[in-house]
Amino acid sequence: MTIHAQPCAVPSTVSPDGVLRERGQREVFCGLTGIVWLHRKIQDAFFLVVGSRTCAHLIQSAAGVMIFAEPRFATAIMEERDLAGLVDANDELDRIVTQLLARRPEIKLLFLVGSCPSEVIKLDLSRAALRLSQRFSPGVRVLNYSGSGIETTFTQGEDACLASLVPVLPAADRGARPSLLVVGALADVVEDQFRRTFTALGIDQVSFLPPRRSSELPAIGPETRVLLAQPFLGDTARALEERGCRRIPAPFPLGGEGTALWLAAAAEAFGVSRAHVDRTIAPLKARAERALARYRAQLAGKRVFLFPDSQIEIPLARFLAREIGMELVEVGTPYLHRDHLAAELKLLPQDVLLSEGQDVERQLDRCRAARPDLVVCGLGLANPLEAEGLTTKWSIELIFTPIQGFEQAGDLAELFARPLLRQTRLAV
Known about the structure:
Blueprint: E1 2-4, E2 13-14, E3 20-23, E4 26-28, H1 35-41, E5 45-51, H2 53-63, E6 73-77, H3 80-83, H4 89-103, E7 109-114, H5 116-120, H6 125-136, E8 141-146, H7 156-165, E9 179-183, H8 188-201, E10 206-209, E11 224-228, H9 234-242, E12 246-247, H10 255-269, H11 274-299, E13 303-306, H12 313-324, E14 327-333, H13 342-347, E15 354-358, H14 360-370, E16 374-377, H15 379-387, E17 392-394, H16 397-400, H17 409-427
Parallel strand pairs: 3-15, 5-6, 5-7, 7-8, 9-10, 9-11, 11-12, 13-14, 13-16, 14-15, 16-17
Antiparallel strand pairs: 1-4, 2-3
């Protein structure tokens, strides 16, 4: 976990659109955490963190992988001699990569992931990736990105990873048919559900980034329409747009309403009539509404406070307010990408307090004063708040768990109902 501290107190400000902007101490995980879900998604990729033992312990703990397992991630441990410049870090890295690929010949895509230690000694992983890619080509492609807590927070690790893939995506053939690229790591079951729905809507040229295998990298070009599945992919979206792709503005597919609007936006971009969309998704949306009904009875009227952590707080807040009936006390987000979240912001209650960035002590004071029924926050804040009698929900679970789409709407609601039910049982 990383805590970023400012050298002195920075006053909070309110932007013209009413968002409270805070620039102080913040409590977050670093971007290395993204490896936990990314290594499961890209089945022939390996993530090699160039970092310290702390980095290794963080990922091992977050992933819950036993020491005798062989996951597709590891840490090239930087010792004191590396940090002091007493050994050639590049030679050491080359040696480790050679050993790794000899032992794991099934690996076709290797990510060198920067960390705080590698950033501190200015180890040029981009040059190392180019050198190693040339050496092991064509069997293995080597890319790099930064998951350093100096540069990234929590979900930004996925953004940095996907952005590193964009330059190596093949170019679509000239005159190719319009295609849809869904961007953001989704559980395989969710990806399959969306693919079936897009086919039913008449959109059959659909690819996903990241793909399940590195041999399935989608071709992109001016006829590619990009639909973001996650709100924290600013760098990836910008890189795709620089290659000529066009982003489809849409809310995000959380809950029945969000998923319906997300699919409708894609359908409109491909000239599918709204009547056909409504007919196609009606049974799926109805099933989601039935699943949500039982949780609405438990959660409606409950007050929720969302600390900034995952960057999915605003779509979550929209879902909780509009589909579950919860009252939003404060909705915090590490960064507010107003363009990507424009459709979501329009759906939030007018009087909701939005905060961007964090001054953790001030935000904790506001949370304690409000005494909400449920607090959504990072692991570092959860236990102290529970000790003070507040009920918490770990925001990291909302990233690790499949929550997108109609079929998962009830599962998403249950994640918020569960801690309140637990608290009720403990009180008895």
